[in-house]
Amino acid sequence: MERLFPSSDLRLRFQPVLFRKTHTMRRFSCTNCKNEVHFDNTKCNDCQADLVYLAASDLMLTGSLIFVQTYNGVDGYLPCANRSLIGCNWLSEPSSISDLCQSCSHTIKIPDISDSEKKKLWSRLERAKRRLFYDLIKSGLILDNQVTKAEGTLRFELLSDVITENNETKKVMTGHDNGLITINIAEADDAVREKTRVAMGEPFRTLTGHFRHEIGHFYWDRLVDQPNTLDRFRSVFGDERADYSAALQIYYNNGPKLDWQSSYVSAYSTCHPWEDFAETWAHYFHMISGLETAHAYGLSPPPVTANITLNEEVDSPRDVDDFDRLLTQWIPVTIAMNAMNRSIGHNDYYPFALSPTISTKLRFIHDIIKNRQVS
Q1: Residue 187: is it exposed, middle or buried by C-beta count within 10 angstroms (0-12/13-18/19+)?
Q2: Fewest Cβ atoms closer than 10 Å to its Cβ: which of 61, 84, 102, 213?
């Protein structure tokens, strides 16, 4: 179904939530009761105060649901119209032409939400997408201010398989095509996703990972497909002019290249340079987001090979220019988290090993984001 743009009659009197000087994600407190609240909360679990997130300022706000819509002298903020539908806790921007937040407004098609199960799966996808948009905003990556259906602009279709009149299943394929990212909502079903993960031999498959991967294709067009960057890309990832369809067919027929772990972050990365880039892009944001959260909570195990730590005065790991510094800090965090997961009987939090070749690819992602010239 086409994306709905319902009206909202919610307004909030805003109070900024207290947070650490590091301004990092997932470390917010309710101003009413000082209880810690999380990034996706719409209410404080302790005092039940209403919560909204203001993406442009990276602030969580608390208040009562009354008819006031001003924050910091600016009029026009509204709780996202999807708040009551799916629990979106973001605010719409004053410049927006809809009453949806920046993340939700980029979704142009949704499943039939008269089906409660599909509505639940759509809700899970939007929650993962908000974390994607958090990544993009905090990393300074350019987003379209006004969402249109024009080719090349960023837009999402979150859809379900369709049963045809002949009782056949018309599959929705997850992928990217000239700015349009399509996600099959079945990925939000934990049982389906785990079954697919096992069948594909993947150690790691998450909704957030899907969004980060597909947005990697979107930003390849804008950050890499430029004369000054393509040559370096090809020296690191290979020549993307290789036949994509043929490469996929070879991968699905024969599996990944032998000893792929020494050069690729995942088996799927081996099929084509475009997929290698998208998988590495997603992995880079796994690392940055993980480091950001670890820093917010003071989780800083000593590096294994060098005495390097993130400066406490740095606002966020996203502000660190030296990639080697990030990588040196990331490795001991993953070792500690894997040990923690194993101690309580879970699978590894981080089932990856970063070879020098993979690290070079991650450094490429880091550099193009830091030196971005978006076309």
Answers
A1: buried
A2: 84
304-331 pLDDT tens trace: 555 555 554 445 788 888 999 899 889 9
Residue bearing tokens 């929650």: 127
Structure tokens at 230: 């393509």
Of all helices (H) and strands (E), which one includes residue 360? helix 356-370
Token pair of 114 as six digits: 């008269």
Q: What whole-number distance in Å separates Cα of residue 101 and Cα of residue 83?
A: 10
Domain boundaries, the chain: 9-94, 106-203, 225-375
Place of tokens 């009782």: 167
In Å, what is the CA distance from 196 to each residue of 101, 215, 283, 327?
31, 21, 20, 30
Fill in the amino acid letter for 163: I
DSSP helix/strand/coil, 309:
coil
Residue 226, amino acid: Q
Distance from C-alpha of 103 to C-alpha of 110, rounded to nearest angstrom: 14
Question: For the chain, what's the residue count?
Answer: 375
**pLDDT per residue as tens digits for the range 195-242:** 888 777 777 889 999 999 999 999 999 999 988 899 999 999 999 999
Least confident range of 157-161, 251-255, 328-332, 342-346 = 328-332
* Separation CA 336–CA 123 (nearest Å): 32
Q: What are phi and psi of 206, to 5 degrees?
A: -135, 160
Alpha-carbon span 43 to 345, nearest angstrom: 31
Q: Per-residue DSSP letters for 320-340?
A: ---HHHHHHHHHHHHHHHHHH
Question: Which among 106, 142, 102, 217 is positioned nearest to 369, based on CA atoms?
Answer: 142
The per-residue pLDDT for range 56-102, each reduced to its tens digit, is 888 888 865 433 455 555 566 788 999 999 999 998 877 666 789 99
Total-model pTM: 0.86
10 Å CB burial of residue 191 (0-12, 13-18, 19+) is exposed
**Selection from 121, 123, 113 nearest residue 88 by Cα:** 123
